[in-house]
Design goal:
single chain, 37% strand, Rieske Iron-sulfur Protein, alpha+beta, elongated, 2 domains, 4-stranded antiparallel sheet
């Protein structure tokens, strides 16, 4: 005979099954939720100063192309991106860094020394040395990077 407060074998096994199933389910659910939500909880990478090379490489009044690579993390996807900037100086002390990506459709621009302007071959866009639109469809000037010189080395703020 069973006493009033005792748990039957059938009820005990049912309860044990639910508890074990709950523990297994939580063990799978918590990592799954963290996998989905985790990238949103990570701190975004702050911008950092990236070394381009010697400032002496820049000729006065002539934009010089520098290339560098940065790591980008977007959710679970990490990729390496090559960025190119044109750096020029009019006085050898202050420098300006311009992106080589056209603001119209993202084509790569190039410096045409004979004409003293940047040219985008996609839609014949022309930018002046300061990155301002001279002609063509681009809606705004070329993007600029902050630039500084430390120990004779050019650095741009990126990331």
């Amino acid at each position: 005979m069973r006493e009033e407060g005792q748990l039957s074998r059938r009820n005990f096994l049912g309860l044990a099954t639910w508890v074990i199933g709950g523990v297994i389910g939580a063990g799978m659910l918590i990592p799954a939720i963290m996998y989905i939500v985790g990238p949103a909880l990570k701190k975004q990478l702050t911008q950092q100063w990236i070394r381009l090379g010697p400032a002496s490489k820049v000729e006065l009044d002539t934009p010089t192309l520098y290339k560098f690579k940065i790591q980008r993390q977007s959710g679970w996807i990490a990729d390496e991106e090559e960025i190119s900037v044109y750096v020029y100086s009019e006085d050898g002390r202050t420098y300006k860094a311009l992106s080589n990506v056209c603001t119209h459709l993202g084509c790569r621009i190039r410096w045409v020394a004979e004409l003293g302007e940047f040219f985008c071959p996609c839609h014949n866009a022309i930018f002046d040395k300061q990155g301002n639109v001279v002609s063509g469809p681009p809606p705004r000037p070329l993007d600029q990077f902050q630039v500084k010189v430390e120990d004779g080395q050019l650095l741009v703020l990126g990331g």
